[in-house]
Structures are given as structure tokens and as C-alpha cells.
Amino acid sequence: MRRMVWVLMLCLAAAVVAPAEEALSLPELPERVAETSSEKKNPAPEKEREEDTELDRILSGEQALPVLNEERIAAKVDRRFTEAENWFVREKDALFTLLIASGIAILAGAALAFGLRWLVARSDAECRRMRWQFIAALSGPVILMVVSGVIFLFLLPVLHSLPELYPLDARLFFTWITLLAARAGFQLITLLDVKMRAFAKRPDNSLDSLMVDITRKLLKIVLAVVTVLFIGQSIFQLNITTLLAGAGVVGLAVAFASRETLSNFFGTLVIILDRPFRIGDRVQIGDVNGLVQSVGMRSTRVITANESVFSIPNSRIAEQPIENISNRGVIRYTLVLGLDYATSAEQLQQAMTILREITTDFKGKDQPQYFPRIFFEEFGASALNIRVIMWLKTTSFDREEQLRTEVNLTILQRFNEAGLSLAFNTVTNNLTGSVQLLPPPVPASPQS
Predict the structure, then answer these.
(1) Which residues fall within 8 angstroms of residue 395, CB to CB, at 6 or more apart?
(2) Is-above-0.70 flag for pTM?
(3) Of the candidates 162, 182, 207, which is a domain's last residue?
(4) Pick the residue with more confidence: 92 or 47?
């Protein structure tokens, strides 16, 4: 299969080189075109004087504007058709060669692209996969460049017979080649992004997904700007310096009018340099508690437990305290249990022992700084309150809910088995002192 690929590449190279020599040694242009160009370069002074005199007479009103009648228009159209027919007759061999060469180049390019795609799909080894992915990223733009170059070389004889179109077509061709090169650069950046994301997932590195995302965006922006500047300056001969100077003045006005956007951009730079969180971390930013979904140039997206997505401006994130819950790897869980006032001191101590047995090393070994803390907090209004502080070994919302449910059910079951009664809010009213009862009212006697 590799020999077949090399044979196709050699055939394609031969097709490129063969017409190049012919294009470089083109025959002289027809006499009509040469005479026309010489007339344009060196017009006769007498003709100029005649045209100037006729134009002066028309402007002064001495002579009326020429009127085109139907016969003159028909004669002009016939002359154009005759010139076009003569041009096709003269360039029919070059056009036929162009058509055949273009078809062969397109078919060869399509076959080569299909073969490379088949080879990439068959590569399974990890060491070879990177090499074939690199080839796949560049094969499309490179094959299009070669095919376009072959077509342009065979098009040169035709373009030399049309001197008015040759400069424009040449600029369009080189613009197309530049865009293909930029396309190859974008695909390489995408491949680099995939590899950097795979490296960022490893635990033994200092790179995170946030840096990878921002790096990809900056590289694409720089490549796009360089491509546009190169096309304008080198191909179309535009004065980019003047355009940049004007853009700078406009940029100052826009920057003054969009201060909030600039503050968000600098907030993005602060997040990149300080790295208070990574993509996928669970954070607490103000009143928002959720997972970091993405970080853009203007805002950061955080998805909460109820699947709501908050877009927080980066300028606010740079100014607010950020709690990165994922850095600890655990979530603090606090609950207060109230036992009724009929509970004795021994039963209260038994309840604390049961709670300690349930929470210690719950779903894994506890780190020394995350040992559960259980203490008799206070005499509440209607209960003896015990406070429990423990850390759940997860940062996921779903897993946190499951662990909380399991802890609460275990506490309820163990308390029922031990005969411990959980209190509920009660209100007791006591009446003290003597109460004097008034005699019943005496009914009035009826009048006689």
C-alpha cells in the first residue's frame, strides 16, 4: 500500500512538472494583442489631440454627444462575438489540455485522499496513530494545493492570451493557496488541542483544561489575523500600515465605549494566570455553587445542581472570593439532631457514640484533617441538640445526594434500634396563680 501511495505521488509530480516547462516557454502573443498593448503604452499624440479637441467641443456645446443607434450596437455585438469565437478557435488546444489535466488531477487527488483516509482508519497502534493523525490533518489541504497548482499551470497558456484577467487570476490563485495553508494550520491546532487535553487529564502534570482551551482560542485568532494581513499586504498590495493606524484610532474609541468588555477580558487573563479553578471543578462563586462548564473571553459558565447554567462575567469572578470545593476532594456536610428532654445523659452519650460509628471512615478512609466532629451543641427550645460535621468523599451533585440519603437512613435505623427518640417542636403552656371565678349574672325581674 505504501508503494502504491509513492507511485501516485510520483505520477502527480510528473503531471505538475510537464506543463510547467511548456508554460514557461509560451509562444509570442498574437500580433493583435501586442499591437493593442503597444497602442495602450504609446498612444499616438495626434490621436490624443483629436480626442481632446472633440471632447472640448462636446463640453463647450459646439458638438452634440454621439448617439448610438441599433445598427452600431448590433455591429459592436457582432464584433465581440467574432472576437470570442476567434479566441476559442485559437485556444481550443490549450482549453482541451486544461480540461483533461484538471480531470486527471482531481481524480488522482480524490483517490489519494481516499487511500490516506483508509490507511488512517486501519492504524491501531498508539505510536503510529499520532503519525497518521498528523498526516490526515495535512493531507486534505496539501492535496488541494497540488491539484490547484496543476490546474493553474495548465491554465497559464490561456491566461497569457487574456492579459486583462491574468493579474486578477494570479492573485486569486495565491489567495486560495494561502487559505488552504491556513486551513492546514487550523487542523494542526485542533490536533494539538486534542493531545493537550489528553495530557491535561493525567494526574502528574501542571496543565489543566482551562489553559488548553484559552491556548487553542489564542492560536486560532493569531493565525486568522496573520492570514488576513498576509493576503492584504503581499497579494493584493494593500497599505496595511495605514489601515492599522486607522484601526488604532477607531480601537481607542471602541475601547472607551466598551470598558465592561475590556474589564471582562482582563478578568480572563487573571483567571488564566492565577488558575483558581479548572474546567469541571466544583466552585462556590458568590451565591452560585456549581461545576465550571467553560471559560470564555467574556464570561464563565457554571452549571448548578438544578441544571441551571449561570454565565458569570470574568470581571466579577476576579473581584469575588472563590471557593474551590474540588481542591479538597470532599464536601462538608453538617446536620443537627435533636433528642427530646426525656433523654438521659447516658442515652445522649450513646447517641453520640452511634453517630461517631456511622460517620467515621464513611465510604473510605478519612484524612486526619477531615475526621468527623460530633458534640453536644446546646439545650434547644424543645430538644437536646447534637451537631454532626462530616465530609463526604465526592464533589458530584448526584453522589452527594446519594451519600446524604444513606447517612440519614443509617442514623434513623440505629436510633430506632437503640430506643432513642428524636424530638420535634413542642410548646407547653403552664398557668400559675389563683383564678377568681365571678358569680353568674342575676337575671332581671320582670316588671309588673
Answers:
(1) 281, 282, 325, 326, 329, 330, 331
(2) no
(3) 162
(4) 92
